[in-house]
C-alpha cells in the first residue's frame, strides 16, 4: 500500500483518512457554529443547529429554528437557511447608538431599495419587540460574497478610523453597518437582505413569518 505524505510525516491510507475526517469535522463546525463577539471570548454555540430540520428539508427551503435567548449582547451566531448564512447578532446599546451616527454615510438608510419584511423596515432593521436582535442574510448584495463581521467600535483598517462596527466584504470592499445597511460609494448598492422570521418563546423561526402578531 502506498504511503501518503503529509507535512514531514509519512502516514498510511488509514491514518490519512482519519486526518481528512478531522479536517472535515472542523470545517462543518466552522460553518454551523460561527460566531463573533465584542470584548471577549464566548463559547462556541452549537445550540443554534440543534433544532434544525434534516438536510433534505433545509435544501428544500424549510424554516430553521434556533434558541436565540442564549445569545449574549455583542455576540453573533450564524445559522444556515436555504444554503445561505443567516446572522443573528444581539447588539449592545453602543452598537444601537452607532446606527444613528453612521446614518448620513449610508446609501439606503431607510431601506427603500432593499429587501426586508415590512416589520424590519426601520433604522435597526429588526422586530419592534426585539430591537437589539439583527436577523440578516450574511450575503453581500454586490456579487454574493460573505462579508466579514467587524463588531468592535473604533478604528478598523477596512471600516475606517471612526468605525461604529459593521460588516466588510473582502471581495470588492463593500461596507455595511450593524443593521446590514450599505455605505455610499462602494460596489454594493442595496442593504443585505432580512429574511422572514418570527418568534416562538425563546425560539426564533427563520424562513417563516406566518401567523405573526
Ligand atoms: S461581492 Fe461584496 S463587494 Fe463584491
What is the terminal separation in angstroms? Answer: 64 Å
Helix content: 10-25%
Kindly estimate the percentage of residues that lie in beta strands according to DSSP: 15-25%
How large is the radius of gyration?
Answer: 19 Å
CATH class: Mainly Beta
Care to count the β-strands?
A: 12
**Strand line-up in the sheet with most strands:** 3-5-6-7
**Per CATH, what is the topology?**
Rieske Iron-sulfur Protein
Major sheet characteristics: 4 strands, antiparallel
Let me know the average pLDDT: 81
> Cofactors and ligands present?
FE2/S2 (inorganic) cluster
CATH superfamily, please? Rieske [2Fe-2S] iron-sulphur domain
Tally of separate helices: 4
Q: Which stretches of 5+ consecutive residues score pLDDT under 50? A: 1-47
Q: In terms of structural class, how would the helical and strand content be classed?
A: alpha+beta
How would you briefly describe this protein structure?
18% of the residues lie in helices and 23% in strands.
Can you describe what's shown?
The chain has 213 residues and is α+β, with helices and mostly antiparallel strands. The chain has a single domain (11-206), classed as Rieske Iron-sulfur Protein. 18% of the residues lie in helices and 23% in strands. It has 4 helices and 12 strands; from the N terminus they run ββαβααβββαββββββ. The chain has helices spanning 13-32, 47-50, 55-59, 93-101, and strands at 4-6, 9-11, 35-37, 64-67, 75-81, 84-90, 133-137, 148-150, 166-168, 175-176, 197-200, 203-206. The strands form 4 sheets. The chain has a 4-stranded antiparallel β-sheet with strand order 3-5-6-7, with no helix packed on it. Strand 1 and strand 2 (9-11) form a beta hairpin. The longest helix has 20 residues, at 13-32. It is globular and about 40 Å long. It starts with a strand and ends in a 7-residue tail after the last strand. FE2/S2 (inorganic) cluster binds at residues 140, 142-145, 169, 171-174, 187-188. The site of FE2/S2 (inorganic) cluster has 12 residues, from loops.
Amino acid at each position: 500500500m502506498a504511503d501518503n505524505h503529509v507535512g514531514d510525516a509519512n502516514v498510511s491510507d488509514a491514518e490519512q483518512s482519519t486526518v481528512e475526517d478531522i479536517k472535515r469535522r472542523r470545517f462543518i463546525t466552522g460553518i454551523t457554529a460561527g460566531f463573533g463577539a465584542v470584548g471577549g471570548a464566548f463559547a462556541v454555540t452549537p445550540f443554534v443547529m440543534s433544532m434544525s430540520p434534516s438536510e433534505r428539508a433545509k435544501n428544500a427551503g424549510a424554516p430553521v429554528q434556533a434558541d436565540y435567548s442564549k445569545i449574549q449582547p455583542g455576540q453573533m451566531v450564524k445559522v444556515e437557511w436555504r444554503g445561505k448564512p443567516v446572522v443573528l447578532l444581539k447588539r449592545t446599546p453602543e452598537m444601537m447608538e452607532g446606527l444613528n451616527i453612521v446614518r448620513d454615510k449610508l446609501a439606503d438608510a431607510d431601506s427603500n431599495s432593499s429587501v426586508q419584511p415590512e416589520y424590519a423596515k426601520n433604522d435597526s432593521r429588526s422586530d419592534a419587540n426585539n430591537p437589539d436582535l439583527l436577523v440578516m442574510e450574511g450575503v453581500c448584495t454586490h456579487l454574493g460574497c460573505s462579508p466579514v463581521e467587524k463588531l468592535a467600535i473604533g478604528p478598523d483598517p477596512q471600516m475606517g478610523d471612526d468605525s461604529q462596527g459593521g460588516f466588510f466584504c473582502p471581495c470588492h470592499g463593500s461596507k455595511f453597518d450593524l443593521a446590514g445597511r450599505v455605505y455610499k460609494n462602494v460596489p454594493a448598492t442595496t442593504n443585505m437582505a432580512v429574511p422572514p422570521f418570527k418568534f416562538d418563546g425563546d425560539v426564533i423561526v427563520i424562513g417563516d413569518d406566518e401567523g405573526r402578531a
